[in-house]
TrEMBL record:
Lineage top rank: taxon: Bacteria
Metal-binding recorded as keyword: yes
Keyword Heme: yes
Molecular functions (GO terms): electron transfer activity; heme binding; metal ion binding
All residue ranges annotated as the Cytochrome c domain in the record: 25-112
UniProt xrefs under PROSITE patterns: CYTC
Protein name: Putative periplasmic cytochrome type-c oxidoreductase signal peptide protein
Leader peptide range in chain numbering: 1-25
InterPro entries: Cyt_c-like_dom, Cyt_c-like_dom_sf, Cytochrome_c_Oxidase_Subunit
Organism: Polynucleobacter asymbioticus (strain DSM 18221 / CIP 109841 / QLW-P1DMWA-1) (Polynucleobacter necessarius subsp. asymbioticus)
SUPFAM superfamilies per UniProt: Cytochrome c
Keywords assigned: Electron transport, Heme, Iron, Metal-binding, Signal, Transport
Amino acid sequence: MKKHSILLKLLMCAGVALMGFSAQADEVKGSAAAGNGKVWLCTGCHSIPDYRADYPYVYRVPMLGGQNAGYIATALSEYKKGERKHPTMRSIATSLSDQDMADIGEYYAAQTASSPNNPLK
């Protein structure tokens, strides 16, 4: 009986591991070069040092340069789904595909203080 229990647990762990591998295979890979042409709308707010949006409430707009690519893509996805609440970000995110979000994330992750593409990040 104990051998069957251990075998069952091993099979369950293997199944969970395989599900993780298949999820990674479906993951979209971003491109910083492609993202360069997609961030034009982002720079209107996110490239202004100490910018504060005043609608729907006073909100400090973060600089995105150097942020983790996955974090940015996930945040955009959450705005698109309505899980994050900001009307402007939601309207922008709803126009983006998963590939767009991954590309934008990679673009901003590649930015440093000395990056020539977007010195204000």
